[in-house]
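Class, discuss our next protein.
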Amino acid sequence: MSHALSRLGRRRALRGAAAAVVALGLLLWWLAPWGEEPPGGAVTLSTGTRAGVYQKYGELLRSSLDRHMPDLEVRLETSDGSQENVRRVATGQADFAIAAADAVETYRLNHRRGADGLRGVARLYDDYVQLAVAPDSGIRSVGDLRGKRVAIGSPKSGVRLIANRVLTAAGIDPETDIRPSSDGIDTGPGRLGHGLDAFFWSGGLPTDGLKTLAEQSALRFVPIEAELVAKLHAQGGATRYYRATNMPESAYPGSQLGSAVPTMAVSNLLITRADTDPRLTEWLTRIVLRSRDRIGAHVHSAQLVDVRTAIYTDPLRLHEGARRYYRSVKP
Protein backbone atom coordinates (compact mmCIF):
# COMPACT_ATOMS: atom_id res chain seq x y z
CA MET A 1 0.00 0.00 0.00
CA SER A 2 2.78 2.41 0.97
CA HIS A 3 4.73 1.58 -2.22
CA ALA A 4 1.63 2.29 -4.32
CA LEU A 5 1.09 5.60 -2.57
CA SER A 6 4.76 6.43 -3.06
CA ARG A 7 4.56 5.73 -6.78
CA LEU A 8 1.37 7.81 -7.00
CA GLY A 9 3.11 10.65 -5.21
CA ARG A 10 6.08 10.49 -7.57
CA ARG A 11 3.80 10.53 -10.61
CA ARG A 12 1.94 13.55 -9.26
CA ALA A 13 5.22 15.29 -8.54
CA LEU A 14 6.45 14.58 -12.06
CA ARG A 15 3.20 15.85 -13.56
CA GLY A 16 3.44 18.96 -11.41
CA ALA A 17 7.03 19.54 -12.49
CA ALA A 18 6.12 19.03 -16.14
CA ALA A 19 3.26 21.51 -15.81
CA ALA A 20 5.60 24.01 -14.21
CA VAL A 21 8.08 23.64 -17.07
CA VAL A 22 5.30 24.19 -19.62
CA ALA A 23 4.05 27.24 -17.73
CA LEU A 24 7.57 28.65 -17.53
CA GLY A 25 8.06 28.03 -21.23
CA LEU A 26 4.84 29.85 -22.06
CA LEU A 27 5.81 32.74 -19.82
CA LEU A 28 9.20 33.06 -21.48
CA TRP A 29 7.59 32.79 -24.91
CA TRP A 30 5.26 35.66 -23.96
CA LEU A 31 7.79 37.91 -22.31
CA ALA A 32 10.93 37.38 -24.36
CA PRO A 33 10.13 35.74 -27.70
CA TRP A 34 13.28 37.20 -29.24
CA GLY A 35 15.60 36.45 -26.33
CA GLU A 36 15.91 40.10 -25.36
CA GLU A 37 14.47 42.61 -22.94
CA PRO A 38 11.43 44.58 -24.14
CA PRO A 39 12.24 48.07 -25.42
CA GLY A 40 11.59 51.13 -23.29
CA GLY A 41 11.25 54.84 -23.84
CA ALA A 42 8.10 56.91 -24.28
CA VAL A 43 5.38 56.95 -26.94
CA THR A 44 2.20 58.93 -27.49
CA LEU A 45 -1.00 57.15 -28.53
CA SER A 46 -3.75 59.38 -29.93
CA THR A 47 -7.20 57.96 -29.19
CA GLY A 48 -10.56 59.73 -29.36
CA THR A 49 -13.31 61.37 -27.32
CA ARG A 50 -13.73 60.31 -23.71
CA ALA A 51 -17.03 58.48 -24.22
CA GLY A 52 -15.91 56.71 -27.39
CA VAL A 53 -14.45 53.29 -28.13
CA TYR A 54 -11.03 54.59 -29.24
CA GLN A 55 -10.36 56.07 -25.81
CA LYS A 56 -11.44 52.97 -23.93
CA TYR A 57 -9.42 50.71 -26.23
CA GLY A 58 -6.39 52.96 -25.74
CA GLU A 59 -6.66 52.79 -21.95
CA LEU A 60 -6.84 49.00 -21.98
CA LEU A 61 -3.97 48.70 -24.46
CA ARG A 62 -1.83 50.95 -22.29
CA SER A 63 -2.55 48.67 -19.34
CA SER A 64 -1.34 45.64 -21.34
CA LEU A 65 1.77 47.48 -22.47
CA ASP A 66 2.50 48.48 -18.89
CA ARG A 67 2.42 44.82 -17.88
CA HIS A 68 4.64 43.47 -20.63
CA MET A 69 6.78 46.48 -21.53
CA PRO A 70 7.33 48.03 -18.08
CA ASP A 71 10.05 50.42 -19.26
CA LEU A 72 7.80 51.95 -21.91
CA GLU A 73 5.86 55.07 -20.94
CA VAL A 74 2.62 55.29 -22.92
CA ARG A 75 0.97 58.70 -22.99
CA LEU A 76 -2.67 58.79 -24.13
CA GLU A 77 -3.97 61.86 -25.93
CA THR A 78 -7.70 62.34 -26.44
CA SER A 79 -8.76 63.73 -29.81
CA ASP A 80 -11.77 64.54 -31.94
CA GLY A 81 -11.29 61.26 -33.79
CA SER A 82 -9.85 59.73 -36.94
CA GLN A 83 -9.02 62.83 -38.97
CA GLU A 84 -7.12 64.44 -36.11
CA ASN A 85 -5.40 61.14 -35.27
CA VAL A 86 -4.08 60.68 -38.80
CA ARG A 87 -2.74 64.22 -38.89
CA ARG A 88 -1.06 63.84 -35.50
CA VAL A 89 0.81 60.70 -36.51
CA ALA A 90 1.74 62.00 -39.96
CA THR A 91 3.18 65.23 -38.51
CA GLY A 92 4.97 63.61 -35.56
CA GLN A 93 2.64 64.84 -32.81
CA ALA A 94 1.80 61.23 -31.93
CA ASP A 95 3.63 57.95 -32.47
CA PHE A 96 0.61 55.67 -32.77
CA ALA A 97 -3.11 56.22 -33.26
CA ILE A 98 -6.35 54.50 -34.12
CA ALA A 99 -8.05 55.74 -37.28
CA ALA A 100 -10.69 54.58 -39.74
CA ALA A 101 -9.43 53.47 -43.14
CA ASP A 102 -11.49 56.06 -45.02
CA ALA A 103 -9.95 58.90 -42.98
CA VAL A 104 -6.45 57.54 -43.64
CA GLU A 105 -7.11 57.34 -47.37
CA THR A 106 -8.67 60.82 -47.45
CA TYR A 107 -5.51 62.24 -45.87
CA ARG A 108 -3.37 60.41 -48.42
CA LEU A 109 -5.47 61.41 -51.43
CA ASN A 110 -5.29 65.05 -50.36
CA HIS A 111 -1.47 64.76 -50.23
CA ARG A 112 -1.37 66.19 -46.75
CA ARG A 113 1.87 66.74 -44.84
CA GLY A 114 3.63 63.47 -43.91
CA ALA A 115 1.12 61.24 -45.74
CA ASP A 116 3.84 59.23 -47.48
CA GLY A 117 5.37 58.27 -44.13
CA LEU A 118 2.22 56.69 -42.69
CA ARG A 119 2.40 52.94 -42.02
CA GLY A 120 0.00 50.31 -40.74
CA VAL A 121 0.47 48.25 -37.58
CA ALA A 122 -2.75 46.23 -37.42
CA ARG A 123 -6.29 46.16 -38.65
CA LEU A 124 -8.34 46.19 -35.46
CA TYR A 125 -12.14 46.08 -35.68
CA ASP A 126 -14.94 47.67 -37.68
CA ASP A 127 -16.75 50.91 -36.90
CA TYR A 128 -20.51 50.87 -37.51
CA VAL A 129 -22.34 54.01 -38.55
CA GLN A 130 -25.07 54.65 -36.00
CA LEU A 131 -27.73 57.23 -36.83
CA ALA A 132 -29.78 57.78 -33.68
CA VAL A 133 -33.03 59.66 -33.15
CA ALA A 134 -35.52 59.98 -30.30
CA PRO A 135 -37.88 56.97 -30.07
CA ASP A 136 -40.95 58.99 -31.05
CA SER A 137 -39.21 60.79 -33.93
CA GLY A 138 -40.81 60.82 -37.34
CA ILE A 139 -37.40 60.35 -38.99
CA ARG A 140 -37.38 56.93 -40.67
CA SER A 141 -34.69 57.34 -43.32
CA VAL A 142 -31.65 59.45 -44.13
CA GLY A 143 -33.81 61.44 -46.56
CA ASP A 144 -36.03 62.52 -43.66
CA LEU A 145 -33.14 64.51 -42.15
CA ARG A 146 -33.75 67.41 -44.53
CA GLY A 147 -34.43 70.55 -42.50
CA LYS A 148 -33.63 68.83 -39.20
CA ARG A 149 -31.13 69.60 -36.43
CA VAL A 150 -28.43 66.96 -36.98
CA ALA A 151 -25.20 66.32 -35.10
CA ILE A 152 -22.53 65.39 -37.64
CA GLY A 153 -19.48 65.26 -35.36
CA SER A 154 -16.60 67.65 -34.89
CA PRO A 155 -14.74 68.95 -37.96
CA LYS A 156 -11.66 66.80 -37.15
CA SER A 157 -13.57 63.57 -36.61
CA GLY A 158 -14.09 60.56 -38.82
CA VAL A 159 -17.80 60.92 -38.03
CA ARG A 160 -17.87 64.24 -39.89
CA LEU A 161 -16.37 62.65 -43.00
CA ILE A 162 -18.91 59.85 -42.97
CA ALA A 163 -21.95 61.96 -42.07
CA ASN A 164 -21.26 64.46 -44.85
CA ARG A 165 -20.82 61.66 -47.39
CA VAL A 166 -23.97 59.82 -46.32
CA LEU A 167 -26.03 62.99 -46.44
CA THR A 168 -24.67 63.99 -49.84
CA ALA A 169 -25.36 60.52 -51.26
CA ALA A 170 -28.95 60.90 -50.07
CA GLY A 171 -29.26 64.21 -51.94
CA ILE A 172 -28.91 66.41 -48.85
CA ASP A 173 -26.41 69.28 -48.70
CA PRO A 174 -24.89 69.05 -45.20
CA GLU A 175 -24.31 72.81 -45.12
CA THR A 176 -27.65 74.13 -46.36
CA ASP A 177 -30.28 71.35 -46.17
CA ILE A 178 -29.89 70.58 -42.45
CA ARG A 179 -29.10 72.54 -39.32
CA PRO A 180 -25.73 70.95 -38.52
CA SER A 181 -24.24 70.59 -35.08
CA SER A 182 -20.71 69.59 -34.04
CA ASP A 183 -21.86 67.51 -31.08
CA GLY A 184 -19.95 64.27 -30.56
CA ILE A 185 -20.52 61.08 -28.60
CA ASP A 186 -19.86 62.97 -25.35
CA THR A 187 -22.76 65.44 -25.73
CA GLY A 188 -24.93 64.42 -28.69
CA PRO A 189 -26.89 61.45 -27.29
CA GLY A 190 -28.18 63.41 -24.30
CA ARG A 191 -29.49 66.19 -26.56
CA LEU A 192 -31.73 63.97 -28.68
CA GLY A 193 -35.18 65.52 -28.47
CA HIS A 194 -33.69 68.47 -26.58
CA GLY A 195 -32.03 70.54 -29.27
CA LEU A 196 -31.15 67.73 -31.68
CA ASP A 197 -33.36 65.69 -33.99
CA ALA A 198 -30.68 63.18 -35.01
CA PHE A 199 -27.16 62.17 -34.16
CA PHE A 200 -24.48 60.52 -36.32
CA TRP A 201 -21.90 58.31 -34.69
CA SER A 202 -19.37 55.85 -36.08
CA GLY A 203 -17.86 53.43 -33.59
CA GLY A 204 -17.46 49.88 -32.40
CA LEU A 205 -20.44 47.95 -31.08
CA PRO A 206 -21.69 48.65 -28.54
CA THR A 207 -20.45 52.15 -27.78
CA ASP A 208 -20.60 53.01 -24.09
CA GLY A 209 -21.79 56.53 -24.86
CA LEU A 210 -24.99 55.06 -26.32
CA LYS A 211 -25.51 51.97 -24.18
CA THR A 212 -27.30 53.61 -21.25
CA LEU A 213 -29.80 55.48 -23.40
CA ALA A 214 -30.33 52.39 -25.53
CA GLU A 215 -30.99 50.25 -22.46
CA GLN A 216 -33.61 52.77 -21.39
CA SER A 217 -35.16 52.68 -24.89
CA ALA A 218 -34.44 56.41 -25.05
CA LEU A 219 -33.29 56.32 -28.67
CA ARG A 220 -33.95 54.55 -31.96
CA PHE A 221 -31.62 53.78 -34.86
CA VAL A 222 -32.42 54.88 -38.41
CA PRO A 223 -31.40 52.44 -41.17
CA ILE A 224 -28.77 53.35 -43.75
CA GLU A 225 -29.91 51.19 -46.61
CA ALA A 226 -27.63 49.05 -48.76
CA GLU A 227 -28.54 51.00 -51.89
CA LEU A 228 -27.17 54.18 -50.35
CA VAL A 229 -23.96 52.42 -49.27
CA ALA A 230 -23.53 50.98 -52.78
CA LYS A 231 -23.84 54.48 -54.20
CA LEU A 232 -21.09 55.66 -51.88
CA HIS A 233 -18.85 52.66 -52.53
CA ALA A 234 -19.12 53.15 -56.29
CA GLN A 235 -17.55 56.61 -56.00
CA GLY A 236 -14.17 54.99 -55.32
CA GLY A 237 -11.35 56.71 -53.51
CA ALA A 238 -11.82 56.76 -49.76
CA THR A 239 -15.45 55.62 -49.99
CA ARG A 240 -14.41 52.21 -51.30
CA TYR A 241 -13.67 51.30 -47.69
CA TYR A 242 -17.38 51.42 -46.81
CA ARG A 243 -19.39 48.22 -46.87
CA ALA A 244 -23.06 47.50 -46.32
CA THR A 245 -23.84 45.46 -43.22
CA ASN A 246 -26.35 45.13 -40.39
CA MET A 247 -26.03 46.30 -36.84
CA PRO A 248 -26.93 43.04 -35.05
CA GLU A 249 -29.94 42.96 -32.77
CA SER A 250 -27.65 42.12 -29.85
CA ALA A 251 -25.76 45.43 -30.10
CA TYR A 252 -28.36 47.51 -28.24
CA PRO A 253 -31.18 45.10 -27.33
CA GLY A 254 -33.07 47.73 -25.33
CA SER A 255 -33.58 49.86 -28.44
CA GLN A 256 -33.45 47.37 -31.30
CA LEU A 257 -36.04 45.02 -29.83
CA GLY A 258 -34.73 41.95 -31.62
CA SER A 259 -34.25 43.59 -35.01
CA ALA A 260 -31.05 44.16 -36.99
CA VAL A 261 -30.55 47.64 -38.45
CA PRO A 262 -29.11 48.09 -41.96
CA THR A 263 -26.07 50.34 -41.92
CA MET A 264 -22.48 50.53 -43.14
CA ALA A 265 -19.10 49.73 -41.61
CA VAL A 266 -15.48 50.76 -42.09
CA SER A 267 -12.36 49.11 -40.67
CA ASN A 268 -10.17 50.71 -38.01
CA LEU A 269 -6.40 50.65 -38.21
CA LEU A 270 -3.63 51.08 -35.68
CA ILE A 271 -1.19 53.37 -37.48
CA THR A 272 2.31 54.77 -37.03
CA ARG A 273 5.11 56.29 -39.13
CA ALA A 274 7.84 54.62 -41.13
CA ASP A 275 10.53 56.10 -38.86
CA THR A 276 9.14 54.52 -35.67
CA ASP A 277 11.63 52.07 -34.14
CA PRO A 278 11.07 48.60 -35.71
CA ARG A 279 11.81 46.66 -32.52
CA LEU A 280 9.38 48.78 -30.53
CA THR A 281 6.72 48.36 -33.20
CA GLU A 282 7.28 44.60 -33.34
CA TRP A 283 6.77 44.26 -29.59
CA LEU A 284 3.74 46.54 -29.63
CA THR A 285 2.14 44.63 -32.51
CA ARG A 286 2.58 41.36 -30.66
CA ILE A 287 0.99 42.71 -27.48
CA VAL A 288 -1.94 44.18 -29.42
CA LEU A 289 -2.71 40.73 -30.85
CA ARG A 290 -2.01 38.78 -27.67
CA SER A 291 -4.14 41.15 -25.55
CA ARG A 292 -7.25 40.61 -27.67
CA ASP A 293 -9.18 38.58 -25.12
CA ARG A 294 -8.22 40.80 -22.20
CA ILE A 295 -9.22 43.98 -24.03
CA GLY A 296 -12.22 42.29 -25.65
CA ALA A 297 -13.68 41.50 -22.23
CA HIS A 298 -14.29 45.25 -21.87
CA VAL A 299 -14.45 46.44 -25.48
CA HIS A 300 -16.68 43.93 -27.23
CA SER A 301 -15.62 44.93 -30.75
CA ALA A 302 -11.97 44.20 -29.91
CA GLN A 303 -12.80 40.48 -29.70
CA LEU A 304 -12.63 40.47 -33.50
CA VAL A 305 -8.93 41.41 -33.62
CA ASP A 306 -7.21 38.44 -35.26
CA VAL A 307 -3.74 37.81 -36.64
CA ARG A 308 -5.22 36.50 -39.90
CA THR A 309 -6.93 39.83 -40.63
CA ALA A 310 -4.74 42.25 -38.67
CA ILE A 311 -2.09 42.11 -41.39
CA TYR A 312 -4.41 43.77 -43.94
CA THR A 313 -3.83 47.46 -43.21
CA ASP A 314 -4.92 48.81 -46.62
CA PRO A 315 -4.48 51.62 -47.66
CA LEU A 316 -1.21 51.66 -45.71
CA ARG A 317 1.85 49.48 -46.13
CA LEU A 318 2.84 47.54 -43.06
CA HIS A 319 5.48 49.02 -40.82
CA GLU A 320 8.66 46.92 -40.91
CA GLY A 321 8.36 46.07 -37.22
CA ALA A 322 4.79 44.87 -37.63
CA ARG A 323 5.86 42.85 -40.67
CA ARG A 324 8.51 41.11 -38.56
CA TYR A 325 5.90 40.08 -36.02
CA TYR A 326 3.47 38.68 -38.61
CA ARG A 327 6.29 36.72 -40.24
CA SER A 328 7.25 35.25 -36.85
CA VAL A 329 3.76 33.79 -36.33
CA LYS A 330 3.15 32.70 -39.90
CA PRO A 331 2.33 28.95 -40.00
